[in-house]
Structure prediction request, 350 residues.
Amino acid sequence: MKPLIYNLDLPELEAICAELEQPRFRAGQIWRWLYVQRVTEWGAMRNIPGSLSTALADRFSLPAPEPLEIEGREDETRKLLISLADGECVETVMIPAVDCRTLCLSSQVGCRFHCTFCASGQDGFQRQLTSGEIVQQVILASRLWGDRPTHVVYMGVGEPFDNYEAVFKSVRTLNNADGLRIGARRITISTCGVVSGIERLAEESIQVELSVSLHASNGAVRTTLMPVNKTWPMDTLLDTCRAYTSRTRRIITFEYTLIRGVNDSEAHARELAARLKRLPCRVNLIPLSDVPEYAGKPSLPAAADLFIRTLAAHHINATLRASKGSRLRAACGQLRSGREEGRSRRSIIA
Ligand code: SAH
Prediction:
């Protein structure tokens, strides 16, 4: 199987051009065809000599220009199912708003972390995505939108810091000033709390936004919801977050899914506020999305309201985010790797 051309960064593409005895500027031209014009056929690169595009086509693949399946109406949240060369699939969610286009990317096929309330890990872990397969999600969505996304969030299937190299290589490609030009401030990586990844991110030259899925105000509750808390306990995680904020001078967003009777009492809110004291952060409260395998219920509106008011009283900046895409099973935690039994492989354009 040929690797995707999107796996290469610009210096690697330059090295390939050198190997093929082509001038270096050809790499920049190809790069712009890939990421500015976003062509999906070698022949469409009009200023590239045929011998070069043939040589590249022999070694690298340009993926199919269409997703396998598209669900949802054009003006609403849409979910794409993208097939990969080995028959695996990934889900990507396009979230349009009045003045922005947010794309939610998957970083792995399946997930190893098994948060109890999340569908993504329920079918286990199949494999890592390559950086090219992550970038491919952006190219396909950009074609459908007719424009590149304004914001990218690594909040689809998978744990980005469990596939750090590929994820960060894709970040560099999305951010590249001669290509897609998606600003670092508009790229968010979300982690279930992989401490080693947060430490690495603090040292990167591109500073993207960091979200940490917390979902609990103490380690005991967190362990029942997120087994990762046994590997990296909440105190260690929060110490690492503190170090990250002082090293980078950036704030962290904590994701907190409110689950009725589990983590949503006033006492939980007070405990959370105490834990986050003097940590430069904001808290994003998310209504629990329905997942068949998880029996928990979303918090009642009065409890959510009291929770957010308690945080505010302790000077914690918190917002309750509206869930998008639940009709399509495209909301937070509802994405899978596209292997559901009996799933239709037809193209559905609703
Ligand atoms: N593995 C990363 C990326 C996934 S992001 C992470 O855990 O952060 C998806 C976000 O949706 C995470 O905050 C996750 O905890 C949250 N989530 C998962 N299942 C959910 C559900 N059923 N309802 C609401 N949010 C959920």
Observations:
- The pocket of S-adenosyl-L-homocysteine is lined by residues 115, 117-118, 155, 159, 190-192, 213, 255, 257, 286, 288-289, 291, 332-333 (CB under 6 Å).
- DSSP finds eleven helices and twelve strands in the chain.
- The chain has two domains: 5-59, 69-349.
- Residues 109 and 335 are 11 Å apart (CA to CA).
